[in-house]
Amino acid sequence: MHRFTDRIARVLARTMLAVALLLLPAAARTQESAATGWIASWIASPQPRWEGDFPLPVLAPPTLWNQTVRQRVRLSLGGTRLRLVLSNRYGDTPVRIGAASVARAGTKAGVAEDSLKAATFGGQPSTTLLPGTSVISDPVEIDAPALSELAVSLFVPQPTAVSTFHWDGGQTAYIAAGNATVKTDLEPESTTTTRIALSGVLVEAPAQTATIVAFGDSITDGAASTLDANRRWPDFLAARLAPQGIAVVNAGISGNRLLAPRMGESALARFDRDVASLPGVAAVVVLIGINDISWPGHAFAPDIATPSADQLIDGYRQLAALARARNIRILGATLTPFEGALKGTPFEGYYTPDKDRVRQQVNERLRADGVFDALVDLDAVLRDPEHPRRLHPEFDSGDHLHASDRGNAAIADAIDLRLLLGR
Fold first, then answer.
1. Which of 187, 191, 200 has the alpha carbon at shortest distance from 73?
2. Kind and range of the H or E element at 128?
3. Number of H helices, E strands in the chain
4. Which is higher by pLDDT, 34 or 167?
5. How buried is 394 (Cβ within 10 angstroms: 0-12 exposed, 13-18 middle, 19+ buried)?
6. Which of 335, 225, 330, 346 is nearest to 291 (CA)?
7. How many CA atoms lie within 13 A of 142 on its CB side?
């Protein structure tokens, strides 16, 4: 009887050991996945294409067909696994992606041969973006250090209207015939400086890694900064924060407004998509409102009324409420000087003394009212001390509205990281 009992005990012990050994890898995988997560390392906010009744050229091709688009992106934080995010938010027909790849960027349209990796979607080499939707690729194994540039190639096999894009990409993208996703060098048929379909790159990082979102208009988007040089102010901020393991993504849209749509949805309408829904967001820097003040009254917006300072402050308060509801710290910025902006262009009348008075009223309220968790006074940083209504010549790109590369560096340097991170 005792021998039988011992035998049963030994069998049970072996069974329990086998079960434990079988469960151990799963437990280890669970522990490993809990230690890491996906964070946004680069984004380009999607916007709808406009028609010919607007003074700015679209710059993107109207359609793609049996063509590959290769787009360069600079990561903020790096890693060894990443995922691509593609968007058809504003399309009314499906977009078929026949193949996709990612590689470390080389010169112009070239890539590093030993780094070229195919991207898959649910284990398949192709995917379809239904109207109004986005897709995320499977993880791609690739060594991509912080602040490194990647080349993302998308093959569009069928006639496809370009309905969703990001207008002011600040980077040359290359369009080649056929499926060139596996080619290390392209022979482009044409180029564009817009972003097509590609809206984000996620990187696997330690679970507590934080992302900072730069949220605004063309000043944030990098208008007038040096093409292909990554000298937007969020790029400079990313270089400051990368050594601390903090990502910075650029959610600027040129021409964007706080209260109303035109070039993209209004900031209030797109905050959830472009800020709050991103994984790992700890804080947002808000610099927007100059287009609300300045668009009304010029040749292409003659019937729009200029909002009051009270209306703009109410809009900022709503942004702050949206951020705080998601436990996101929000750092605001005063509106920068713009005397003489866009004079001699189709936007003649963008600046007037009356509009500047509204800007100054807004800035006074932002300094006094505690609308945001913290404030960076970019008006004080960028203005000419001898003529405070205009940009300092060293920080002026030449159009009297957008910062030069040096001005963008000054914006990034002016952000107190302790205030930004709440530490």
1. 200
2. strand 127-129
3. 10, 25
4. 167
5. exposed
6. 335
7. 32
Its pTM stands at 0.91
Q: SS3 of 17, please?
A: helix
CB 267 within 8 A of CB 219: no
The DSSP-derived string for 24-63 is HHHHHHHHHHHHEEEEEEEE---EE---TTSSS---S-SE
What is d(CA 244, CA 339) in angstroms, rounded to the nearest whole number?
A: 38
pLDDT, tens only, 356-389: 999 999 999 999 999 999 999 999 999 999 999 9
DSSP state, residue 265: S
Three-class DSSP category at 70:
strand
DSSP secondary structure code for residue 367 in this structure? H
pLDDT, tens digit (0-9, with 9 covering 90-100), for 87-113 = 999 999 999 999 999 999 999 999 998
Give the DSSP letter string of 282-343: EEEEEE--HHHHHSTTSTT-TTPPPPPHHHHHHHHHHHHHHHHHTT-EEEEEPPPP-TTTTT
- Among the residues of 370-404, which ranges form H helices? 378-382
